[in-house]
Amino acid sequence: MTDRFSIFSVLSQAFAGQKGWKPMWREPAPKAEYDAVIIGGGGHGLATAYYLAKEHGLTNIAVIEKGWIGSGNVGRNTTIVRSNYLLPGNIPFYEHSLKLWEGLEQDINYNAMVSQRGVLNLFHNDGQRDAAIRRGNALMLHGIEMELLDRAAVQAKLPFLDYDDARFPIQGGLLQKRGGTVRHDAVAWGYARAADKRGVDILQNCEVTGIRIENGRVLGVDTVKGFIGAKKVAMAVAGNSGRVAAMAGLRLPIESHVLTAFVSEGLKPVLDCVVTFGAGHFYISQSDKGGLVFGANLDGYNSYSQRGNLPTIEEACEEGMAMLPLLGRLRMLRHWGGIMDMSKDGSPIIDKTPVAGLYLNAGWCIGGFKATPASGWCFAHLIARDEPHPFAAAYRLDRFETGDLLDETGGGPDAVVH
Hints:
Helices cover about 30% and strands about 25% of the residues. It is α/β, with parallel strands linked by helices. The mean pLDDT is about 95.
């Protein structure tokens, strides 16, 4: 049986009828106690477990997932990765994440289909051009390469867009060539496999029903498979952050909203990069199978439903048609929704909670997937050392109390506008 992927193992298995592969990870029974328990078997939770084992030498760890690995937001997103943020508190973090993406496949020995095809943010008027120039300059001051494209350059790259729309003519775009896409479910499987190989227990179909606390310190978690003791408990549950935190008596500055995404039927290559619409909230790329993968705004009301509503679908199609008219001739294969943990300033939280031994990773809003490696890296650092990683120093929980917010979009303290 083989457990390492290489050209030689792939060829040998081809001749052996594919019968020699080992399972991707074990299916262990829960231990009575762990040094650390991570609630949430999505990308962030699995990455945290992997980096706790790899970077900090902790192996007595469990990742607890209420469903199956890949059943949450990590397996239901639009796969975009980038680091083109504006604010100093965000730029180092997301750039570190992009660098980890660039070396991820070699690190975990798994094909995550990292495709650095570029991310292009369109602008449609002089004000948006000025904002793009400001963002590009801020990034280049941090050593991150950006490129400002005029209309002719964008048109040469993407000839199928509508450059003369009466309301939203395309005047240019800001391009990050190192951005792109990564296969979302492969990220979950790859991190799960890599963490398992380092001794981490992955407990699927093991929903947490309570968090036990005594004298202000966490003791462990109650689950459908019984009580599991833990010296430290870490929450990385995305849109369910509010509900899980409530088990510990905490009320978070987070709302849960639904974000809808779509996949079209397959077609020949029309988009060679990720493109965002500057006059609305719409983003699109083309998958390796040929389908156009795109998304738009939140539904606009609190929900735990994993499906979108008709007005949101209509808005997404309107914005898509304004930018890429050929969408009107395509059939949609499916659409779905993910539950977003929307923070009040649009930026995440990686911090200790008031309960000793209880840690929080939440508030990723609509951009959690791109942050997966750095989120796991920084959260593991916090759990292992009880101090924030420098890249995540701005993601404090108490900033909502002190007013030291990290408002990337300038939308104010309203979760839905982020």
